[in-house]
Design a protein that fits this description.
Blueprint: H1 6-14, H2 30-39, H3 44-59
Amino acid sequence: APSAGPLEYALATIGPGRIVYGSDWPVRDFATQLGKLDGAGVTGAARDAITAGNLRTLMGQRWPC
């Protein structure tokens, strides 16, 4: 089950613009890790940033997936 706490702390401390999604695959499955975003109530623009946008910006690539 997804753990509560670290993501919520990061969101409150540094905000969604500085968090990059990582699945920890193959140790954990994608659904479990995405469940952490759901459990923290991350939606809309914040979810888009965490799951793809922040990494694109970091790498200087802004095209859609």
